[in-house]
Amino acid sequence: MPDTIDDPDLLAGLPDAALVDAFPSARAWKVLLVDDEPDVHAVLRLALQDVLVDGRGLLLLDAFSAAEARTTLLANPDTAVILLDVVMESDHAGLDLVRHIRQELANRSVRIVLITGQPGYAPQRQVVSEYQIDGYRLKSELSADVVFVSVCAAIRSYRLMREQERLQRDLEQKVTELDAALGVVRESEANFIGAQSVAHVGSWIYDLASDELRLSAETCRILAVPEGSTGSYERYLTRVLPEDRGGLEETWRAALEQGAAFEHEHRIMAGGSVRHVRQQADLRCAVDGRPARILGTTQDITERKQAEQELQRSNAELEQFSYAISHDLRQPLRMISSYLQLLGISLAEQLDSEQREHFKFAMDGASRLDRMLVALLEYSRVGRLGEPPAWVETRVIVDEALLFLQPAITEAQAKISVRGHWPRAWVRPDEMLRLIQNLLANATKFRLAGRVPEIGIASRVNRANWCLTVTDNGIGIQPGQRDRLFQVFQRLQSRASYEGSGVGLALCRKIAEHHGGTIWAESAGEGQGSRFCVSLPLPREGG
After folding, report:
1. Positions of the chain with pLDDT lower than 50, given as ranges
2. Which of 28, 124, 465, 519 would you label with 382, given CA atoms 20 to 30 Å apart?
3. CA distance 324 to 319
């Protein structure tokens, strides 16, 4: 029966099963026997035959000189144990081999047990300390048990050494990976700081327990305080303009009570000037569920606010100008029309046919100009005058538009279909009525001769948007003309063929955009009909 390491004393400290798994049982432990006496080889082989260590046998290798041992080690770098004679071809051949293994080969794993018949040549303490020796045995003391225990202990030490080396490599790999990750983090942090600077967006962390507000470099620049500054919630409030302070405090309290994210725009004093900032923040809770920290961003939106205010002023001035022009021009135009009518009556018998035709052109021109001014007036009123926003039944608005257009629908013998889900929407009722009315009127008017108009109006709710479409089988739209459709006074068809002011679709676009939506047209081409699509945001009622 083969010898195994079953003695509890010998098993003490040996690696557990997790370490055993790292060395497949099919592989034997390599043990190199280095001695210039064949009889010693025979004794060692006899003592180690059939030995199993953790289910793995021993592969015994023989070398009869230090030089031969060097060659064998080069061919077997995974040798676990060397039983080495000190005195062979020279008095210190064995010790020279140890030095070669440890220093030149840099092999710290292989365990070395010295055996010698001449103890005076290598003092035990000096050899063990200087050459990392695992054992020192006199040949006169060698017995089967001594050899067995020495080899088993050396294999145990070898295994632990290899495992330590593996752990060291893993640790070095982890350190390398960590260094690389830290490099990426540092680069990302630098990029993040750069992005904050470019976008004028800073970050901050507020600790509720300590009332400490930690600011990023960009936040410090926005607030015009030294980089690295800290603060508190109350100190920040002193920077907020008094008229904006109440709204910020209310938003802050609500976020703390509800444990929810929040955003708020307000004005602050920074560096002696008023700045507009936008705060966005998220609440983080402790393990017990109580609010602990607030993570937020501060964006300097001063330039955007200034641009918005300038745009609002320009739009207001433009709308006021359009209103004044269209309103003030109508009065003299009405006078011109009235006098033309009087002249037409008084000179009716004196005008020849050509003069009557010229007179009719003048009357038609005055009438068209009046309609254009009325349309321009209506265009300028969008968003300024009329009914305030309210929750309305969109299907009711469609029915009102169809009722108003009934004479034109009857005259055109148009077939109208209404389908889909019609939600309640937050809109200006009069403007939404005009938008739908204009789209239906165009679908009725721009029809092909000899073709019965088929008009479909459909509705659907897509997530948080209300989508409205008006489809017809009319004259269609050429691909290159779609961009011009929604411009003021742009006509794609001759006035002789289709009457109109050229403002209707521009008015539809302005109404849609004023409600935060968009409008666009689709068509396969001339004579292929058209589809006009309107998408408007649909807020939650009561939200």
Report:
1. 1-26, 494-498
2. 465
3. 8
